[in-house]
Every structure is written in C-alpha cells, then in structure tokens.
Amino acid sequence: MVSVHRNPPGPKLPAPEVAEILASVPLLAAYFRRVSVEMPDDLVALFNAHGLTARHGAVLSQLAVTENLGVTQLARVIGVSLSTASELIGDLSRAGIVERREDPTDRRRTLVQLAQRQRASVEQLVASRAAPLIHVLEGLSDRDRQGFAAGLRAWAAEVRTWPAPTVRDQTS
Hints:
Number of domains: 1
CATH superfamily: Winged helix-like DNA-binding domain superfamily/Winged helix DNA-binding domain
Radius of gyration: 19 Å
CATH topology: Arc Repressor Mutant, subunit A
Number of helices: 9
Largest sheet: 3 strands, antiparallel
Mean pLDDT: 89
CATH class: Mainly Alpha
Oligomer: single chain
Distance between the termini: 9 Å
Order of helices and strands: EHHHHHEHHEEHHE
Low-confidence stretches: none
Strand order of the largest sheet: 2-4-3
C-alpha cells in the first residue's frame, strides 16, 4: 500500500468556508489551461516553436504593464529566483518576444521590455486574460480588493514554499 504524506504532518480537512473557496480552484485552473484559445496566432506559433510555458506568460503579463523592468525586480514580482527569471527572459528573447538592454544609468543592471513587433499581440492577450479579474475587482470595495490581493499573495507564497509530498511504501 502506498500513501502520500506531507510535512508538516497531520493535515486536517478544511472548514466548510475553506472548502467553498477550494471549490473555485478547479474552475480557475480550467480557465488558465485554456489560454491558447485566446492567444493570438503569432504568439501560439512562437510558444510552440520555442517550448514556452505559462511561466513565460507570467513574465509577459508583467512586461505588458511595466516598461523597462529590471530582471531582479521581475524575479521578485513573479516570485522566482534571479537565475530562473534570467532563464525565462533568455527563452523569450530567443523567441523574439522580449528585448534586453543595459540600463543606461547602471551598467550592471539589465532592463527587459516587449519587442515592438510582438507588443500588440501580448497586450491583447494580457488584456483578454485579465478582463474577468478586472471586472470582479471593480465590483469590490478598496478594503475587499486589498484583502483579496493580500490573501492571494499569501496563498501563492505558501504554495511556493510548501514541501512536496513524499511517497512511502507501507508494505515493508
């Protein structure tokens, strides 16, 4: 018999109000999986040809709203290490979707921006994907928006650092 264990030990079933929140997760997961339906054809071709993934999309969503983002700042915003951010940017640069350049005020710093020829497609995709969230946020009070954002950031941070499950064979 094989069982899956998580550390810390002793997970407990969620309270009904938490279970209600968890019921939304598969709906959101399905929404995020269908990104290619809304992705402009030129981006689909580039993502397929260069093996780009949702993690690359996270970079694009930030670059669509913030020009000339530093690699360190981007890593912090999307919650990855500096080396991972550099790798993602390198992949996107080789695909011709982003451009890197030296910061004119600090030569040690690399700035990243969307390539002009892909900007419209990326902005179209990001706007399309953000529309349901923007609609919901517009209906919330400032306090509720702040609470929603804080809770989502906290959950994402917890998931990033949560130990992976271990599989133990209980037949021995």
